[in-house]
């Protein structure tokens, strides 16, 4: 007689209990979180209906939208990811979800040259227009500045445009009350000092 796997039995029992709880009390947040957690370990074809069920009940729960998007990102379902973000971003002004969005935009555009760089820049501007004033947006400002600094400049005019964009972004970032404002101030001062030194060489 084969030994009984008590761990598997317990897990199955827990899942059944969670499903029952979700059915009898669909707005039970704890049950929804357990279901979402279990969905993270499923193939996307099985996980998607679970996420859809959860999000029909919690349409502004950015945590679940982020998990749903990341599940599709793991298997490169770009069209599905775009649809998810189009459904949730403007209703969920939550920095981690928007950083997930920018990560996706960078991934699909990073090998498209100047056109891709422009799309990424537009996406950053779009994101900062909605969550740039959030106290937790400091890393977003820093990521955007790092991106701007990485852009190639072949001519003096392009370099001037790039430096102006970096300066304007720093100046917006340092007047935004985020958790990283002091670090941004220090980086901005260093940036201006380095520009001044190059100018006087």
From TrEMBL:
Ranges for domain Suppressor of forked: 18-199
Region ranges (Disordered): 1-23
Keyword set includes Repeat: yes
GO cellular component term, pick one: nucleus
SMART domains per record: HAT
GO MF: mRNA binding
Keywords, sorted A to Z: Nucleus, Repeat
Location within or outside the cell: Nucleus
Main subcellular localisation: nucleus
Name this protein carries in UniProt: RNA CLEAVAGE STIMULATION FACTOR
